[in-house]
Amino acid sequence: MSSTYCFLIQFILNFVGSTAADTVENNLFHGKRSDIPAPYLPTECMLEIFKHVQAQDSGLYSCLLVNRYWCKNIVPLLWSRPFEALSTENRYKLIHTYLACLDREDYLNLSSSLQSYNIKIPEIRQPLFNYSMYLEEFSYKQLEIAVHSTIHIWCNKTFINNHKQDQILLIATTLCKLFMRRSISLKSFIIDKYFSHSDIPQISTFIEQPGLSHLTRFKIDYCKPMTTNTIKLLENLPYLCSNIRCLDIKFPIFEHNHKSISRIISTQKCLNEFNLSGVRIGSERILFSLQSRHETLNIIRLENVYITEACFNALALCENLKDLSLWYCRGLYIENTSVLLKSKFSLKKLRLGFSPICSDVAGLILQVGGISLKELEIDLINSIIVEIILDCCPNVKEIKLANYFPHDNNYLFYQLFFGLSLENLEIFINSKNLDYEDMKLTGQDLPPSLKYLKLSCGFTIDQFKELFKTCNAPLETIIIDYVDLNYDHIKVITKFIREKKTVKTLGIVGMDDMTSQGIKELKMLKKRYGIFIIPSYELNQW
Known about the structure:
This protein has 21 helices and 15 strands.
């Protein structure tokens, strides 16, 4: 049983009194609901407590059995993102439950349409709750996968393969109509595809009310040419919603439907974050439209995008910009980027990805970051870059080095790290790159102010030992994300924790696949030294 779940049990014991609490605890462990009246916390308080249990395996499902009041508060949480990380069997159960939420007319129409494929929907009882109304995040790709799994269970695979895309679209259209009509909480909509050659439902499906009217996040992720209905949806989206705060667009480089994106940008009154990836031709039109949201935009992230001088002029007008990412974009020339020096924004976070020949442009953009910059991610380190960071960005507290390999010039590490009052450091090297075996990084290179260290890269055991053996930094948090981590690495970390006595938090990616020896070692660290072991489901948040 999780520690958070145990806390809830203890909380109930203290709150409702011994008699009622004994009944509650008994119901929890014997799968019964309780009808015994008990003092209720306000709903807002209950939801805050339940959110701490939500990500844990089966935690909230057990809480469903306490009483009706708990059940009523937990069901919306469980059904807000129901498509995530489902097994084939649970996908079937999910679709089966949603079909049970259909109006009688929609259910009969779907049953009639499926009869032409010799598919008969199993008998379905009306559910206790109208589960579709709680949906908050909806990915079309996840819906396709879930429907595909359901049809596999209904029919044999040979028959499905002849008509599977038609069958999936038929059921997906019916369920999309259900979500558009019933979901009063839909905040996030993601258009992505599992079957790249099939289309999404017709636009008439998405104009149902309340539909998309409450969206705060919209994402489109396409690597193939956009389908007809997708294009129509993008054209109509400005008329369906106007309060999107986060707009995330990923197009293939040959896509040309940029007018619709520009229109979406200009009609969203509270647009706070804009992400664009993969657009080469026509990016100028999209980025130029950001001027219309210059007062509200705080975050702009561009990846593999062609950027012109006009684009940088638009970026420079976003006076409240705090977070800027330019990751392997084209058009990054001094004559294009110099306009940013006239900008009035004060960046807090900057992410730069370049080829090694772009030191001048990287240096110019770092000057734009200036003294307000607190977080920096960069893949280019040389003497010029280090000097500019130290001179222009002296208040950086957090650095992430991406795919940078310190070999014979690792003195730059020392110069950079000790020139800043660095508190957080992450080193990321793509797992496909084996150059890490030549990397020279010792604990003596780490600054004395460092409290957080995340290693998303490979290390030989000898490198690992040398790093922690020579480290004098008062590390409080260590996170290791390394695919070949083994028990020997864990022992090195244990020795460091035992000797330094500064570490409070430890995260190991891949703990679920760890050997019994490794698990035993982590339990010992938790019990003997009070180390908080970050759960696997929380690691992405650290």
